[in-house]
Write a structure and sequence with these properties.
The structure is a homodimer of 453-residue chains.
Chain A: E1 4-6, E2 16-18, H1 42-45, H2 51-58, E3 63-65, H3 68-74, E4 82-84, H4 86-92, E5 97-102, H5 113-125, E6 130-135, H6 139-151, E7 154-160, H7 161-166, H8 168-176, E8 180-184, H9 190-198, H10 206-218, E9 223-225, H11 232-252, E10 258-262, H12 267-281, E11 289-295, H13 300-303, E12 305-310, E13 319-324, H14 346-353, E14 358-362, H15 364-378, H16 384-403, E15 408-413, H17 421-428, H18 439-446
Parallel strand pairs in A: 5-15, 6-7, 6-9, 7-8, 10-11, 10-15, 11-14
Antiparallel strand pairs in A: 1-4, 2-3, 4-5, 12-13
Helix pairs in contact in A: 3-5, 4-15, 5-6, 5-11, 6-8, 9-10, 11-12, 15-16
C-alpha cells in the first residue's frame, strides 16, 4: 500500500495555458488608474510590462499557446508528478482518496518558475535588459533569479527587510544566480526613502517592496517589473499545473470531489484549481468543491473587504477590486512568508465572490503539525505555505472518516521546505504561536481604502 | 539549444542492482576481525547488520533483485532524470557533449535514499526496531530518518559535533521525520566518553561518530547499525543510478567517453560508474575513462595509503584494505562534509588499484566556482560535494575545447545544495580558503595504521 506516482510523458505536457476569463459567467471588474481613478489602458501598463504580457492580462481567449522556448525549459522538470498519498491515507485511517500534485522538483523548489520563465522570456524578446521585483519569503525572487540567468537578464530583487535578515540563505540562493538583492525599504527609491524617513526601523512589507520595484522599473525604458502572483497573466501561467493534473487523474481513472490549495497572492491555488473550475463553469463536471486555505494571521479572503485597493503601499500600482486588508496592513511575522500579502488576486477574488470557492483560515501551529504528519507518511517536507493546503486536505479526509464516506481529495503541494528549516526548528522548539487580528485591528487598515467611483 | 531531459517510464526502472563483484578480474582483499585480525565471518557481522545485507556484502551474483516494496518506494522519485547540459556546453563553448544524472529529486535531496530505503526494509523484515548511524554533513542521516519514518523504525543519528552546531537545519530536518540526533562525541557511549575525557573540546569526526553508533548497536539485539557509504552493499544499492543512466543514454543514442563522480566514501561514484565499469570489464565497451574527484583537503585516493585500516576511530569496526589517511586523521572543516572521511570504499579502492579509475583532487574554491557556473547555465544549484564532480566534468569539457575534440562526458549530480546555503554564503563573501595537507601531516596519521598479517 505505497504511495503511487502518476507521471505524464514529456509529449503530454500542455502546449497551452488555460485562461479562465473565457468561461466566467460575468467579467471581472475593471482595473483603474492610480492617479486618475479612470479605466486603465494597455498603454498605461507599458512602462511596467512587455506588451505580450499585457495582452495576456486582458485576454478572453480560452487557451493561450506556451511559446516553444518556454515549453523547452518547462520540460527540465515538467510534467511534475501527481501522487496518490496512500501512506497518508493509511496513517489517517480515512476512507478518502488523497491526491497531491508536487511542484517542488523545479530548480527553485516551488511552482514559481512556471511564471518566472515565461515572464523572463516575453521580456527578453521585447528587448528588456533588467527586471525588478519584490520578494517576501524568497521563493519568487529565487525563481526570477533562475529565469534571469537563463535569459541573460539582470534581476534586482527588493526583499522585505525582515526576511532579508532572517533568511540570509534565500538571499545567497538568489545571488548564486547573479541577482542583486536589496533590503526593502531601501535608500535607492523615493518610496523607500519616504518610509525610512517616517519609520527608520521599518522592517518592510511586500506592499513597500512592490512600490520600490515598480518605481525603479518605470524610470528606465529597458527595465521592466515582474510580479510573482496576483496578476491575471501570472495565474494563467500557473494553470499548467492543473491541466497536467487533469490528464494524470484520467490515468488514475479518478476525478476530485474537493480541491484544496493555499492562497497568498492566489497563483498556486489558481494553478491547480482554474482548469477544474473551468470544467465546472462549462457544465462538464458539476459536483466538485474548491477550498482556498489562507493563514489566520493574514485573513484576506475570510476577513478582508472586497473593494478597490492599491497593490502597494506607495500607491504606484493600478487599483484593482480584490479582497484586501488595506494596503497599509502589515501582517505579523508568521513563517509562511509567501502568504503574507494584504490583497488577493483580483481574478480569484472575483471567483470567490461568484461563490465558486470556499475560503478557510488556519493558524500556523495546526499547519506545521499537519506538515510533519505529511512528511512522515509521504517523505516530502512541505514549505510552510504548502502546509496550509496539507492541513486543509487532512481536515477534509478526517471529515470523510467521521462521516464514513469516501471522497476524492486533491491538493497542490506547491513547494518543499528545504529552505524553511528555521521555521521547523522554531516550531519543534515550541517557539511559534498563533496570531489572529481583531476586527478592530483589521478595520483600522481598511479605513484607509481609497474612495472609488 | 536548451538542456534536454531523458526520462524513463516507471516500468523501465531497474528491478535488480548490479554487483560488480561478479565481474572483477581478481577478488577484493578479505575483511579482517578488529580483535583477532583473522578473516571475518558473516556471523561476526550479525550484531551490526541483518543477514540479507551481510549476504549482499559478500555476494558474487551479478544481479541482485530489488525487493518489490523497495521498488515501490523508489518509484516515488525514480527513475531520476538524465540531462544533456546543452546550456552549459554553450556557456563553456565546448565541442564536448555533457550529460548529468540528477539525484536531487529524492525526498532528502540526494542519492542517499537509494540505500537508506533498502537498508531500512531489510532491517524491518529481520525484526530490527532501532537503527543507529552517524552523519557528517547530514545527507545520510536525513535519508535514514526518512526511511525510518516509512518503515516505523526508530533512528538515532550520531552527528559530528561541529556539523551539529554549524548545521542546525540539517538536525531539524532529521527531527522532522522523528529521528533522534546526538552530537558526537557524546556521553552516551564509552567511545564518546573516552574521547571527551582526553579532548573535552573535541568537535568530532566521522570516525568517532561511527564508533559511537556501532557501540550502541552491538549492545542490543533489536538495534542494528546502518552505514551510508563505504560498504559493498551500499555501493550495490546505488548502482540503480548507473543502470538507469545506461538506458537513458541508449534513448539519447550516446555512450560516454568519460564518467566523472565525486568520492567521499565512494557510493555515489560507484552508483554511476560501476555498471559502466562492469561493461568494460566484460569487454562490451572498451574505450571509456573513469575519473573520481575528491577534495584536496581530504585526499584519500590521491595521497592516502592502500592498506588495512579501521573504519572508525575507536577501532570497533572490522579492518578493511582501502585507501586511507589513517583512522585518526581529522580532515579540515571544508563545506563538502560528505567527502570528509579518512577512508574509501574498499571495493572502489580495489578498482582504483586495478587501474580502472583515475583519482583527482581539487580545492574547494575551484569547485564552488564550477558549481555557480553550472547553476547559472542549468538552473540547479549543486551540493558542495557534487560541485567536485561538476568541476571534474567542466575540466574535461574545457580540455576537449583546447584539443578541438568532441567527447561525451557523463557525471553524477548527486544532490542539490538547498541545505548548503551557508557554504555558498561564505564562498560568495570570500571567507573560504583552500587547505591542503603536507606529506608530513598525512604521514603522522598514517603512522598509526594497524600492523596486519
Amino acid at each position: 500500500m505505497d504511495t503511487i506516482k502518476y507521471l505524464l510523458s514529456e509529449n503530454q505536457m500542455p502546449d497551452s495555458w488555460y485562461n479562465i476569463q473565457a468561461d466566467l459567467p460575468e467579467p471581472m471588474p475593471p482595473v483603474l488608474h492610480p492617479g486618475t481613478g479612470k479605466l486603465i489602458t494597455p498603454g498605461d501598463l507599458e512602462p511596467l510590462f512587455p506588451m505580450q504580457l499585457i495582452e495576456q492580462e486582458v485576454s478572453t481567449e480560452r487557451f493561450i499557446e506556451i511559446p516553444e522556448q518556454v515549453q523547452s525549459i518547462y520540460r527540465q522538470w515538467r510534467p511534475t508528478p501527481l501522487y496518490r498519498a496512500r501512506r497518508l491515507e493509511k496513517a489517517l485511517d480515512t476512507p478518502a482518496k488523497i491526491y497531491y500534485k508536487y511542484e517542488g522538483t523545479s530548480p527553485a523548489g516551488s511552482h514559481k518558475p512556471n511564471t518566472a520563465i515565461p515572464q523572463a522570456y516575453y521580456n527578453k524578446i521585447a528587448g528588456t535588459k533588467r527586471l525588478t521585483t519584490e520578494t517576501g519569503a524568497g521563493q519568487w525572487g529565487s525563481s526570477l533569479a533562475v529565469a534571469g540567468a537563463f535569459f541573460g537578464l539582470d534581476v534586482e530583487v527588493y526583499m522585505v527587510k525582515v526576511s532579508y535578515h532572517q533568511k540570509p540563505y534565500r538571499r545567497a540562493f538568489m545571488e548564486s544566480y547573479g541577482a542583486r538583492v536589496i533590503a526593502s525599504p531601501s535608500n535607492e527609491t523615493e518610496s523607500g526613502r519616504k518610509i525610512l524617513q517616517e519609520y527608520p526601523n521599518s522592517t518592510g512589507s511586500l506592499g513597500i517592496a512592490i512600490s520600490e520595484a515598480v518605481e525603479m522599473a518605470v524610470q528606465d525604458a529597458e527595465t521592466k517589473y515582474a510580479l510573482g502572483s496576483v496578476l491575471n497573466h501570472v495565474l494563467l501561467h500557473q494553470t499548467v499545473i492543473g491541466i497536467e493534473t487533469l490528464a494524470q487523474l484520467e490515468m488514475a481513472g479518478d476525478y476530485p470531489d474537493i480541491i484544496v490549495g493555499c492562497t497568498g497572492g492566489g497563483s498556486n491555488f489558481a494553478g491547480i484549481a482554474f482548469p477544474f473550475i473551468g470544467a465546472k463553469l462549462r457544465g462538464e463536471k458539476q459536483d466538485i468543491n474548491f477550498v482556498a486555505v489562507e493563514p489566520a494571521a493574514c485573513p484576506t479572503l475570510t476577513k478582508g473587504k472586497y473593494a478597490y485597493d492599491f497593490g502597494d503601499t506607495a500607491h504606484l500600482t493600478p487599483m484593482v477590486k480584490m479582497h484586501t486588508l488595506g494596503s497599509t496592513f502589515i501582517p505579523t511575522g508568521i513563517h509562511a512568508g509567501g502568504l503574507r500579502y494584504h490583497g488577493m488576486a483580483p481574478l480569484l477574488s472575483h471567483i470567490v465572490e461568484l461563490g465558486l470557492v470556499e475560503p478557510k483560515a488556519y493558524g500556523q501551529l495546526d499547519c506545521f503539525a499537519a506538515g510533519l504528519s505529511f512528511a512522515r507518511a509521504e517523505g516530502i517536507l512541505p514549505a510552510p505555505e504548502a502546509n496550509h493546503a496539507v492541513k486543509g486536505a487532512i481536515d477534509e479526509a478526517l471529515r470523510c472518516k467521521e462521516e464514513g464516506v469516501s471522497k476524492t481529495i486533491l491538493f497542490n503541494l506547491c513547494g518543499h521546505g528545504h529552505f524553511d528549516m528555521q521555521a521547523y526548528t522554531d516550531y519543534q522548539a515550541g517557539l511559534l504561536v498563533d496570531l489572529e487580528y481583531s476586527s478592530e485591528e483589521i478595520g483600522m487598515a481598511l479605513a484607509g481604502l481609497p474612495v472609488v467611483g
